[in-house]
Amino acid sequence: MTTATRGYGLTWIDPDGAAQASAGVFDKQAATRRQRALMAAGCTHVKVVKVHAGELPQPAL
Prior knowledge:
By secondary structure, the protein is an alpha+beta fold. It is built from one helix and three strands.
């Protein structure tokens, strides 16, 4: 039996309007904390997205 590790990334829009994506992969709890921090900093459209091993999320457009 194999164990699949789930990774999560984030996409968001900066307060200045630039689309961004996380450069690292987080576990679910860390991704949720980062999401709250980004929203507190004034970012919009902050989403936690599932990513596969070796993959990074694409910035929201």
